[in-house]
């Protein structure tokens, strides 16, 4: 099931996305509005709204976004870094979230903004110290993410809070796919295009540390809550974004997250 969060006429809700999409035919998708919240037992209301009539929001409201850096060897190498032996985590604030179709605002303190296409894992239940064999039980689903990075600030400041935590630096969406199993999620095609030109192309099977590794690692340190988001790293091919660019992250079996870069007003 594809679970989206949306707004229409000032109201916010969740819905199950029905139908198949194709380029130029997104209006064929509809939302069946959910009664309740998606992390608990819920019912479909039967009230359906065309997806083209709503604004898609970030599909979850996480307590925290845990991101893992340098989790693909070729990406580490392209930036002149070594791949860490153990998962390398950092946090992005919830205020960095935007949904599919929302703008990425170019921060005034940077002159080198980069895209980073990533598979995002959404947690479905409160958990800590998750054993490897139980990882599949704590996952709600998967979505697309773009870990937008002020690369010059990252180099200059040595720590990543501003470089990766500024407002609009975490596009997420368009929805959460709940029907992917863990084995499938560990081997998906992930790509990024800018203005229709391919920049990144890889597979999640190329991750140095698997989804299981990442969740076991971070849950040793902190409790994960329903809706929390785990960003699993980006494949090689990261590169610049400029004002006016349209960047799209597409992940096999999930969908496409699209955002346009604008100048801060």
Automatic annotation (TrEMBL):
Any one Gene Ontology BP term: carboxylic acid metabolic process
Domain Fumarylacetoacetase-like C-terminal positions: 64-261
Keyword Translocase: no
Cited InterPro entries: Fumarylacetoacetase-like_C, Fumarylacetoacetase_C_sf, Rv2993c-like_N
Glycosyltransferase listed as a keyword: no
Keywords: Hydrolase, Metal-binding
Superkingdom classification of source: Bacteria
Signal peptide: none
Molecular functions per Gene Ontology: acetylpyruvate hydrolase activity; isomerase activity; metal ion binding
Domain Rv2993c-like N-terminal: from-to ranges: 1-59
PANTHER family per record: ACYLPYRUVASE, ACYLPYRUVASE FAHD1, MITOCHONDRIAL
Name used for this protein in its record: FAA hydrolase family protein
């Amino acid at each position: 099931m594809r679970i989206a969060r949306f707004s229409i006429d000032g109201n916010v809700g969740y819905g199950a996305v029905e139908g198949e999409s194709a380029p130029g035919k997104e209006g064929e998708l509809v939302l069946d509005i959910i009664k309740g919240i998606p992390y608990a037992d819920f019912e479909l209301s039967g009230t359906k709204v065309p997806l083209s009539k709503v604004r898609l929001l970030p599909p979850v409201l996480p307590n925290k976004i845990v991101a893992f850096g340098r989790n693909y060897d070729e990406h580490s190498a392209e930036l002149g870094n070594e791949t860490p032996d153990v998962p390398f985590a950092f946090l992005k604030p919830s205020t960095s979230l935007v949904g599919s179709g929302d703008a990425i605002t170019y921060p005034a303190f940077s002159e080198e903004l980069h895209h980073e296409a990533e598979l995002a894992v959404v947690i479905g239940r409160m958990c800590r110290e998750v054993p490897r064999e139980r990882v599949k039980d704590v996952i709600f689903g998967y979505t697309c993410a773009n870990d937008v990075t002020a690369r010059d600030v990252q180099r200059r400041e040595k720590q990543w809070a501003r470089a990766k935590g500024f407002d609009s630096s975490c596009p997420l969406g368009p929805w959460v796919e709940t029907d992917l199993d863990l084995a499938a999620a560990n081997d998906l095609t992930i790509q990024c295009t800018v203005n229709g030109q391919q920049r990144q192309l890889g597979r999640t099977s190329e991750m140095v540390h698997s989804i299981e590794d990442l969740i076991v690692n971070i849950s040793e340190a902190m409790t994960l809550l329903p809706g929390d988001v785990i960003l699993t790293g980006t494949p090689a091919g990261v590169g610049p974004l400029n004002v006016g660019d349209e960047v799209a992250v597409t992940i096999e079996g999930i969908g496409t997250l699209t955002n346009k870069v604008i100048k801060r007003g």
